[in-house]
Amino acid sequence: MSSDVLTIVARHDPARWMGTLRHRDAAELPFDASQVASTAPLLFDATVYVDQLKGQLPTAIISLISSRTILHAAPALAEIAVTVGVLHPADERTELSLKPILETFRRIPLQRVVSPANETWLEAAVIAGILARTQSLAREARRKFLHDALLFLMAAENGAILISRNSRDLDLLLQMKPSVGVLLYQRR
Hints:
By secondary structure, the protein is α/β, with parallel strands linked by helices. About 55% of the residues lie in helices and about 10% in strands. The radius of gyration is 17 Å and the shape is globular.
């Protein structure tokens, strides 16, 4: 385990990352679905599930999803599953809110759920730590950034394209590791 961390630190030498990264213009980010590799599977950020349930996914994303293998990241599913526990059983709105969430989980084939390898967790932590320092993130934002870094690296680990609405955080992650496949979108 300790050798994994040393390898990761050598790969992402924190001393190389001293200045604050600037957020790029949307035109410099991967928002064009037609530019996505034609055979790569897709991995969803939690934003995709949320926007799909709300009917707010763009048509280009829906079309892409219908023609690809979909992988489901355990951490993104966990982010959605928290809602199941948070909704109060005595609240009359809970049943109506839970129904589409539970139906989404029922439709996910277990063989398409992927979990991060130990090294992926460690690399995500190092990258999130570097960005927390260089971007002066508040303590409460660090855990969210770790989650984003984990999904980002899981896409690379699985040869997939990460689909997300989270352009701010993924812009920074792409500046650190531009080879990872990402497709960003904005809600309809």
